[in-house]
Amino acid sequence: MKITVDFEECLKDSPRFRATIEEVEGDVCELESKLDKLVKLCIGMIDAGKAYNAANKQFVNGIRELAQQSTKDEVIESSLTKFAESLQEMINYHTILFDQAQRSIKIQLQTFVKDDLRKFKEAKKQFDKVSEEKEAALIKNAQAPRNKQHEVEEATNILTATRKCFRHIVLDYVLQINVLQSKRRSEILKSMLSFMYAHLTFFHQGYDLFSELQPLMKLLGGQLDQLVVDAAKEKRDMEQKHSTIQQKDFSNDDTKLEYNVDADNGIAMEGYLFKRASNAFKTWNRRWFSIQNNQLVYQKKFKDNPTVVVEDLRLCTVKHCEDIERRFCFEVVSPTKSCMMQADSEKLRQAWIKAVQTSIATAFRDKGDEGEKLDRKSSTSTGSLDSGGEPKERSLKGESALQKVLAIPGNAGCCDCGQPDPRWASINLGITLCIQCSGIHRSLGVHFSKVRSLTLDTWEPELLKLMCELGNGVINQIYEARREELGARKPQPGDPRHEVEAYIKAKYVDRRFVRRPSDEELRNKVVSLSKQEKRLSSSSEHLPPRPPPPTPKLRPGSNASGQSVKSADSGIQNSADGSREMLANTPSNNSLADAEAAESPPMPMPATLPPPSPCKEVVFYEPKEYSPGLQLYWASCARSLPDMAEALAHGAEVNWVNTEDDKRTPLIMAVQGGSLVTCEFLLQNAANVNQQDAQGRGPLHHATMLGHTGQVCLFLKRGANQNAADIDEKTPLTIAVEAANADIVTLLRLAKMNEEMREAEGPYSQSGDETYQDIFQDFTHMASNDPDKLNRYQQYDPQRP
Q: Which long-range contacts (CB under 8 A, 24 or more apart) does 124-129 make?
């Protein structure tokens, strides 16, 4: 309640005035107490807030350290880094809030208490003093005797002066009271309103910050559900493996050492041996020995660099040592030195001696074939078909894929709104997207758009090449051809989500901006594509012919009519190591054509083998009618992804059947064209990998007949049925064996073996054998990045065993 004092009333110095003064003084005293308490509480709050911020900073630093420790897991690293940045922003907002509290509450109210209330107290002291003086003057004036004139005059003069002084003091005091009562309202409200606005700003900033973070949190939430399921499956598998291993008999572990020249890590054999030192004391030390790179090496500790004992095993011999006191010893002798070693048992000694002898024989056998030698000598490489000593990159992830895709013209901004530096992509459309547009695309369904992260997901080589074949510029020329004509506004970064969503649905679902071709334009397009296919086919006729494969050897007990193909069949065993050995040593008769190069003409078959039924020649016939499906059909054969995307935008059915051409589909024509990327594009757009033509042959049949190894690998990965038979009762495996195509035979048999293993292990088995996965990754890598390596007949040596 605001208490004011009337100036007229103060001059009267009435009891009402005195009562009002007393009430005001009590109210001001209580106000001072409350303000002092509020300022102290504010100081405590600010101190506690600073302590909270300090603790929060330590917590955020802990998150950053955890992110740095998780550099091998890009999802965790990127997510924790983003969370730490957001929490650091919240700490900054808290700091601003506490600074504002200090300015608005502490400083402002302290100033009011120190300045205005101090003036009130000083005025009150003067008022109390002059009031006492006035009271004394009145008493003295009343007591002056009548007969003493000089005392009466003195008392009267003092009273007059005192009253005059009282009037000035009391008016100043009342003015100070009224000013204080008026100012207290504005000062308190101003202070608190400023503090509340600081809170409003703080919560708005926090809301905006976490609104930007919400899409990432939702995405991680979805990934987290899958991670929980995967973790449960991994736990169950680990428990099963744990139980299985516990039941094994480890008493004969030393018999399990085997020499494997095609081991995944390039190390043919390894294990612990005692080594006799070459010093005068002849001490024995336990070391970790391994045979790798045609060398015998050992390590003291895991982090130590290997010490080479023998530089070249071809110059060495190995022998038993029975003339020393220790048991199970053997010696490796080179022209310059010898090395005495001791195994833990007789069986281990025999295994090591056999391994060294086999390494010597292998080194001599591979001396003339440098390519194979380099393959075997890759100490840290996987057991892939690539040569060289460095491990190859099987798939791209994170910044590598991002840089390759964003380097395509037009891909540096979101395809739909232009937001710079996009981090998402639609793999079936071949475009880049910002995070908001990617969420809208995901809501359309995978039959319209398949969204993938450019930084968090792993990218297979063929999928990355697909992205590089298309791009935002190509797709926008198709899907936005009539946008300006219709006067439609393209969204800009920062536009409301509902506007961007409406535009994207109109663009991709309704295809409102696609320009429909006339019948004449469609006819010209189809004819042009068929001519382009002819030019590509004719250009392949000038490629140098490949040498024929060796004449297959007869198996024991087989005759000329029942012969089998050794080059395709002999290396395939029921174990993963056998499969890998066959891949490393068996020549092939095919080379893969990618989007720029067609397949070489089929090489001649051996005279002793009946050739498979040839694929029907691709010939253009004038159709009864032209349609987008026909455009997709010929564009697939001509390897033109922009024309294929245009046909799909015009409403072409991805599994369109050409009834005038043996019921072939665009996917079968993509196989004929020899492009791996074209097949990948159709599969990403829901092409049926098992749809057959009039001869009962699916894409896998045609890829096997043409010897397109990369396409066979792709179709098997996408679930192609390798047991399907054509009208001649031939499966892809039958055709590959007849053609002596070892690589395709290997892929088909490995896929079949992997399928049988999964069926035997039950519905909760893993995705398959690791060797199966590695070999398919090898073929995928070569098919996309180095298809010439699939044609290894030029390296074939008929004298080689």
A: 124/25, 124/173, 126/169, 126/172, 126/173, 127/169, 127/170, 127/173
